[in-house]
């Protein structure tokens, strides 16, 4: 080696280390930004820059021109392959941005006869889960004085909010809502109520199925509850265990959401796995979009409620899974054969609104239960 070779070796090592550093760097910012474009475009440029630095020093080791050219093009091919592999991996683990489902555009149900309850004053402040908005908005449509066109594609009713399950519990506990329509509370929501000195009263008003879904390209058509527990505890990581193929990518929701609370109930005390941040989704529509557009189609699994999946977020690229051999449907909920069906509630916290009890009684009456059924849920 000629004089200065040690310096060239050091420069080469630094240049090659830059490749590894840039790989880590782009992984970090891919997760931070959450942009699909970052996943498969930026690594190409990062590897190209780092690779150029490395090659610029490596080729100088050799006085033989032919030898240096062989090394140069071999290195170009190696680094290009490394960049392509990384880009493909990022692309396969990405999905399109979540779309937003507007619950206010869902059709409402109007009675074909005069309502037995008419609230003229002190309209209850109502909030609830996104999936239940068409239901509680229909309750208000038939009992509140404002004239609303139930066939309209967009409607707003006074004193009606849709803050999602998490937001609805927060507003109820803080006294900003009189009644909310949601799934049962999580332990943290019960704790928040206790800390606020508030007692939550849950009144069942109907039934709904908790469902699991995968991309239609997945060959797996069903799971039993034990298998679901194995997947979401992290004990099962491959679809091969259930007759499919590929590594399982199990999406989760944020803590306190109705669907996450339902999942925790299914786990029956088995701890949920600590999943990477990028597979925690804060919105239900994000869950549907992630499963339907995830590049590695056969690998993803998610969960929701039947009405939301079949009525609000209709998507031909996903399929519902049977649970314990039973497909989720209104019939299997009503006859009790679907094993993951549960009640949903009208929840109050000691509001002094004089119309709350009358509204709940009316919801439990024939007219209220008729609306539960016509909206698309299973009545009591």
SSE layout and pairings?
Elements: H1 5-33, H2 36-40, H3 42-58, H4 65-92, E1 126-128, H5 133-143, H6 164-173, E2 179-182, H7 187-195, E3 201-215, E4 222-223, H8 225-233, E5 249-250, E6 252-253, H9 258-267, E7 280-281, H10 284-293, E8 300-305, H11 306-312, E9 318-320, E10 322-323, H12 330-334, E11 341-348, H13 356-363, H14 366-375
Parallel strand pairs: 1-2, 4-10, 5-8, 6-7
Antiparallel strand pairs: 2-11, 3-8, 3-9, 3-11
Overview of the structural elements:
The chain is of the alpha/beta class and 380 residues long. The chain has 14 helices and 11 strands. It has helices at 5-33, 36-40, 42-58, 65-92, 133-143, 164-173, 187-195, 225-233, 258-267, 284-293, 306-312, 330-334, 356-363, 366-375, and strands at 126-128, 179-182, 201-215, 222-223, 249-250, 252-253, 280-281, 300-305, 318-320, 322-323, 341-348. Strands 1, 2, 3, 5, 8, 9 and 11 form a 7-stranded mixed sheet that branches. Helix 9 (258-267) links the parallel strand 6 (252-253) and strand 7. The longest helix has 29 residues, at 5-33. It is elongated. Residues 31-40 have low confidence and may be disordered.
